[in-house]
């Protein structure tokens, strides 16, 4: 466990102390030989799993997971397989659980998904589906109207190396803004999303690159303004903010269980598209259960307006996402993503329903 240094705002006397967990190397040490390498790829089908341990976040961008759990779509398709769930604040913590073997599958951001694949030398996890496109923004204090207005300011992201952290640092690099102390640089710090909201209100943070509903909460509850909607940085306005990854060995040993999970996710996605108002209410109910507080209707509506639920992982975007992490300074070199994607279970489910198949963009072995 690593503690971030306390960051003092250059214009305020308050100190923001934040906890940053970087557990990936520890998790890698916890991976068993049976969960890695050719052994995992060569594992044979053992039929339905007795249990599926699933991770996700209490975010609007994880709506298909929240709806799937609340409405019973996942449990129904899994049948005799017990569904056990666990929520996380950000991707690196969930990656730790996946690489450590305490999770079987997880809805997660695209950045940590790539990192999990790279850190395990392309062995431990596979991307099996998308979940959400869109739903992330850089929100700032009123008066900050251009990138240069961020010099000497403090910007928060949910966690070091998470999807929004990479997106922010890549964007800063493109804008010629250096990260560090001083009036001509930008201070980047990491905090749980609820803490970022408090810090923004208290003047300790000037901006934040956040997933929904937190971007909407800062705008509607704390007076923030949008400087960047990440959709505008991608062709067609689509980028994978949430995807579904599965441990490779679990996928090989229990392919029918993974297909069942995907059928449940697809059912939740379809239901949400046909029942918009009720879908938002269900997500809000789950958020209240997981965080202790429901969202206001304006925040909920604004957050949903910025996302699209889809099982398409938008695999064509991942080579760029991998390069973005290098530009952001999060990793030294972009990993080879060959074999990262395995859409065979998803396409089996899609084909059974007469739907168009998802494209692996050459990333599937």
Automatic annotation (TrEMBL):
Protein family (similarity comment): Belongs to the bacterial solute-binding protein SsuA/TauA family.
GO CC terms, sorted: periplasmic space; plasma membrane
Residues in coiled coil: none
Ranges annotated as spanning the membrane: none
Pfam families: NMT1_2
Alphabetical UniProt keywords: Cell inner membrane, Cell membrane, Membrane, Signal, Transport
One term of GO molecular function: ATPase-coupled transmembrane transporter activity
Main localization category: membrane
Name of the protein: NitT/TauT family transport system substrate-binding protein
Keyword Cell membrane: yes
């Amino acid at each position: 466990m690593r503690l971030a240094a306390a960051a003092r705002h250059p214009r305020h006397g308050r100190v923001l102390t934040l906890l940053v967990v970087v557990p990936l190397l520890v998790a890698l040490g916890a991976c068993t030989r049976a969960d890695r390498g050719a052994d995992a790829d060569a594992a044979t089908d053992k039929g339905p799993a007795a249990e599926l341990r699933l991770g996700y976040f209490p975010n609007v961008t994880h709506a298909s997971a929240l709806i799937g759990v609340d409405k019973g779509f996942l449990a129904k398709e899994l049948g005799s397989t017990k569904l056990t769930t666990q929520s996380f604040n950000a991707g690196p913590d969930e990656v730790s659980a996946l690489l450590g073997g305490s999770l079987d599958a997880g809805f997660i951001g695209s950045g940590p998904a790539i990192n999990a694949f790279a850190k395990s030398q392309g062995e431990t996890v596979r991307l099996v589906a998308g979940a959400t496109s869109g739903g992330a923004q850089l929100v700032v204090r009123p008066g900050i109207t251009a990138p240069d207005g961020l010099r000497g300011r403090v910007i928060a992201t949910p966690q070091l190396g998470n999807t929004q952290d990479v997106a922010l640092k890549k964007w800063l690099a493109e804008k010629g803004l250096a990260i560090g102390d001083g009036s001509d640089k930008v201070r980047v710090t990491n905090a749980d999303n609820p803490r970022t909201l408090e810090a923004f209100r208290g003047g300790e943070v000037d901006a934040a690159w956040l997933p929904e509903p937190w971007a909407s909460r800062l705008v509607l509850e704390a007076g923030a303004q949008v400087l960047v909607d990440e959709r505008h940085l991608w062709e067609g306005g689509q980028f994978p903010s949430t995807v579904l990854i599965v441990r490779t060995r679990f996928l090989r040993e229990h392919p029918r269980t993974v297909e069942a999970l995907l059928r449940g996710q697809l059912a939740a996605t379809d239901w949400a598209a046909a029942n918009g108002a009720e879908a938002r209410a269900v997500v809000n109910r789950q958020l209240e259960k997981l965080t202790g507080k429901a969202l206001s209707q304006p925040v909920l509506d604004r957050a949903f307006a910025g996302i699209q639920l889809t099982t398409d992982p938008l695999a064509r975007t991942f080579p760029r996402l991998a390069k973005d992490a290098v530009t952001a300074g999060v990793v030294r070199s972009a990993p080879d993503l060959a074999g990262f994607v395995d859409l065979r279970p998803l396409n089996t489910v899609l084909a059974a329903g007469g739907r168009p198949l998802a494209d692996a963009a050459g990333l599937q072995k």
